[in-house]
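To: structure desk
From: M.T.
Subject: fold request, one chain
Message: Could you run this one when you get a chance? Sequence is below, nothing fancy, just the single chain.
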Amino acid sequence: MTRPVLKETHGAIATLTLNRPRKLNALDYETIDTLLADLDAIEGDDAVRGIILTGAGERAFSAGGDIPQFARSVALGADPALRDFVARGQRLTARIEAFRKPIVVAVNGLAFGGGCEVTEAAPLAVASEQAVFAKPEIRLAMPPTFGGTQRLPRLAGRKRAMELLLTGEAFSPARALELGLVNAVVPHADLMPAARRLLERILVHSPLAVATILTAVTRGINLPIAEGLLIEAEQFARMAPTEDLREGLDAWIGRRTPVYPGSWTAVAAE
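Reply: Done. Structure tokens follow.
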């Protein structure tokens, strides 16, 4: 059987590709489980420092959840639907959001429903000019279930998010950029190179420092500022005794480029 998520590694960057193009890369249970397993494996692989997540084919990043499969779970009752669909999807977006290595979503086409929610959860995203976004769950007589009612208002603001959530209308990549859902919109042919360039700009830095920033922002963003500052201090305390911090300070004082173990610069020099 064809694997529902393809995995390739080039240097320090792994590319994960949702691989159900005939189904517009809909997130069925097997795809979600495979993606979670791949993230687990990458987290434990020190050679991989960043991830690009994209979709196979020219039409879609992901059109969202696999609705026929979801409907079968709903037919069994609320508890099976919550367990099989809602909890699984929320586990995926929470995993992506809290991942301690940078993830760039490369939105190559439709990003509807769960595909949009994955984009919302990721710390970084680049969209093709051919991308189209939507929050269409209202048309199924349901709210988003992979975190969309929570993350989109935090990214875009309550009223702008409400319009998208309550109308279900599609919106352009330019609108996604304006709302803070993506970092950049690029020509379609430049999508994967642009995603890689963004990661490369990050991977020259200390992998440990990158992880602490990802953690501090993710854990602190929804807390009162005083609690967020405690998390920030905690993450600094993790860096204080490290060789990476000593190297960063020494390089700054010596006016040279730092080289951190496992960084893009160090890997490229090997």
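Reply (cont.): The chain has twelve helices and nine strands. Let me know if you need anything else for the meeting.
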